[in-house]
Inverse folding.
């Protein structure tokens, strides 16, 4: 479905010799292709617009080097700018008094419960004592799902039936304090940013247990809606990081750029499978080439 | 008509308000010019129609504008609606005219978390309410508590659930379920399966086996294989529909989560490239939040009135 951006740019620049400066016209034509590549990768329309304008400014007048042809030169600039936008990978910020609270939020089915368990296993491996909190009393068997995963990784799961999530989290916090847990991780129910009552519930939980990390879990296959989702959650709670899930598929994951531009918070993990170990830290360069749809050429360009 | 689709319209209300105001500002009193075409492209792309489909629609709309001699932006709205509507089909639920298939077997497939299990329960409720004897099967033996999730739905709706053990063979559950549905004289059997990304070769092979085994248990089954698509999905939806169609002959789609503000615009590319009708639309998490797909409501959701 995706014609390689390199090929497209090479076609665009077919008439251009290797030397000289990139003219405004050259760059204009190239940016049309870049724009298409980004939109096909699900980067939000408005983000693409400002991104392309930025890159255009940088690219005009650039000297075409010996090593790269004009197409590659443009890709190099786009790639660098994307990396800048995506930002470096960051670790969880687990500081302050114990128990430190980490909360997972996001749309329905985005992968919250699964990533909660994955991150719990990861942190346990670093010597943390973890308490999982099953704060999704709505979806059928959501609690059982977390309990099953908790059992698999040998981590305790806190749950009390018939208690609303904010109160449940309050009790869990007290329990974690007394029990000497170092990290308390809350799995919340999936919700749309349009659902005011459920969004308020997140705000209430935040107010009660003051999470050090509120991680927005986003399905990497999400389309243009990503921007509004990010805005909605950011407006309700203090999002501190992103997890992009289902990166083991063939989606481009351009939503990462949209969300980054809106929230400015770092990407903290990638979910790369259904298994409990399928959690990776991300590499901006690799994600950038994936978004642009060109795994192979990037190495070459980075070395040039 | 307003009655039948009232829930849909209510579900899309908040989205419609946003789109509507944007559309008013786009069309308003403007003349048709390049800015208008750009704005229109923006609306379509932001609804996840994708570049190709959006370009296609604009091209055809430009032709109409020229042919009809339109110059007011407002006059375009009607034609835009028609343009969008014509790209989709309203098809009947195939169960309605499958008189001889008993039990009528529906296989539910799709990527992780798209809404398969919830939709299985919703469909079961719809058929049950129309007086049919319904059975559902927990073909997801893989995901933690997936069986419990369907079991809870079965209990709530008072619909029998056929299930195996977590970690068991999904094809065996499907086979048993068909046999049980035959034995108990069910009119319809809906089989849920585990979510899987279309790029995972082994998991797709496993799904093919489930499909095959159902055919062995009952000639001609599954009578329908439906892919559940998450309406928030962007360009990847086409690749999903394509792969699942190739692997297990998907012949219908269900667009879940249309209430979450996503527009589900990929449906147009799927209709165009794969000729796959959308049969139902998911509009919430409750069992009654499923409606027959209606292209008019859908198009309204994308462009407003
Ligand atoms: N392939 C793949 N599947 C994933 C990944 N993360 C989660 N999943 C699957 O996606 C589906 C949904 O994951 P959940 O963790 O239940 O999602 P959730 O956000 O908790 O869902 P709700 O609580 O219903 O809102 C399940 O089938 C998971 O196994 C991932 O990184 N890769
Ligand atoms: N808002 C909304 N949520 C939905 C809809 N359909 C399903 N959901 C929610 O989406 C989440 C995932 O739904 P499931 O039915 O578990 O999805 P699935 O495809 O069976 O997931 P896996 O089996 O893990 O692959 C749950 O939280 C559902 O409540 C819908 O139409 N609207
Ligand atoms: Mg969950
Ligand atoms: Mg399921």
């Amino acid at each position: 479905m995706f014609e390689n951006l390199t090929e497209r740019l090479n076609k665009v620049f077919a008439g251009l010799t290797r030397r000289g400066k990139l003219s405004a016209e050259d760059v204009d034509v190239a940016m049309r292709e870049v724009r298409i590549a980004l939109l096909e990768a699900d980067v939000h329309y408005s983000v693409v617009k400002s991104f392309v304008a930025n890159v255009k400014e940088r690219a005009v007048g650039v000297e075409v080097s010996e090593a790269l042809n004009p197409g590659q030169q443009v890709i190099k600039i786009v790639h660098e700018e994307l990396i800048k936008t995506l930002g470096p990978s960051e670790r969880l910020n687990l500081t302050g008094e114990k128990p430190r609270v980490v909360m997972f939020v996001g749309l329905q089915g985005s992968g919250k419960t699964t990533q909660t368990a994955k991150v719990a296993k990861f942190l346990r491996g670093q010597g943390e004592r973890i308490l999982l909190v099953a704060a999704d009393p709505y979806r059928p068997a959501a609690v059982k799902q977390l309990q099953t995963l908790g059992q698999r990784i040998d981590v305790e799961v806190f749950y009390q039936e018939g208690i609303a999530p904010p109160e449940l989290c309050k009790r869990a916090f007290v329990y974690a304090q007394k029990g000497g847990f170092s990290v308390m991780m809350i799995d919340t129910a999936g919700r749309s940013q349009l659902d005011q009552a459920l969004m308020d519930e997140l705000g209430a939980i935040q107010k009660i247990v003051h999470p050090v990390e509120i991680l927005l879990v986003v399905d990497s296959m999400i389309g243009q809606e990503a921007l509004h989702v990010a805005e909605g959650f950011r407006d309700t709670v203090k999002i501190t990081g992103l997890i992009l899930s289902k990166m083991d598929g063939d989606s481009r994951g351009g939503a990462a750029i949209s969300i980054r531009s809106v929230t400015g918070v770092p990407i903290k993990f990638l979910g790369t499978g259904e298994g409990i170990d399928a959690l990776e830290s991300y590499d901006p360069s690799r994600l950038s080439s994936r978004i642009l749809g060109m795994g192979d050429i990037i190495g070459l360009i980075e070395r040039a | 008509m307003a009655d039948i689709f009232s829930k849909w319209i209510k579900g899309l209300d908040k989205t419609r308000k946003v789109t509507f105001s944007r559309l008013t500002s786009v069309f308003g009193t403007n003349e048709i010019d390049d800015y208008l075409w750009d704005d229109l492209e923006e609306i379509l792309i932001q609804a996840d129609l994708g570049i190709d489909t959006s370009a296609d629609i604009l091209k055809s709309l430009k032709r109409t504008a020229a042919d009809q001699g339109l110059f007011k932006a407002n006059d375009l709205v009607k034609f835009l609606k028609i343009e969008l509507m014509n790209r989709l089909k309203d098809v009947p639920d195939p169960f309605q005219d499958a008189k001889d298939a008993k039990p009528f077997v529906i296989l539910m497939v799709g990527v992780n978390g798209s809404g398969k299990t919830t939709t299985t329960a919703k469909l079961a409720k719809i058929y049950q309410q129309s007086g049919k004897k319904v059975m559902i099967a927990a073909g997801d033996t893989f995901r933690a508590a997936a069986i419990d999730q369907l079991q809870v739905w079965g209990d709530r709706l008072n619909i029998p659930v056929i299930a195996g053990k977590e970690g068991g063979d999904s094809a065996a559950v499907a086979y048993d379920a068909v046999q049980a549905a035959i034995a108990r004289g069910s009119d319809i059997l809906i089989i849920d399966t585990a979510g899987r990304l279309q790029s995972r070769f082994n998991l797709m092979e496993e799904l093919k086996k489930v499909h095959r085994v159902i055919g062995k248990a009952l000639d001609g089954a599954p009578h329908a294989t439906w892919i559940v698509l998450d309406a928030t999905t962007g360009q990847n939806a086409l690749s999903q529909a394509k792969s699942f169609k190739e692997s297990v002959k998907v012949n219908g789609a269900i667009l879940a989560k249309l209430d979450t503000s996503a527009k589900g615009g990929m449906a147009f590319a799927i209709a165009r490239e794969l000729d796959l009708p959308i049969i139902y639309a998911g509009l919430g998490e409750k069992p009654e939040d499923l409606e027959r797909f209606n292209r008019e409501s859908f198009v309204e959701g994308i462009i407003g009135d």
Chain B has a mean pLDDT of 91. The longest helix of chain B spans residues 51-68. The two ends of chain B are 16 Å apart (CA to CA).
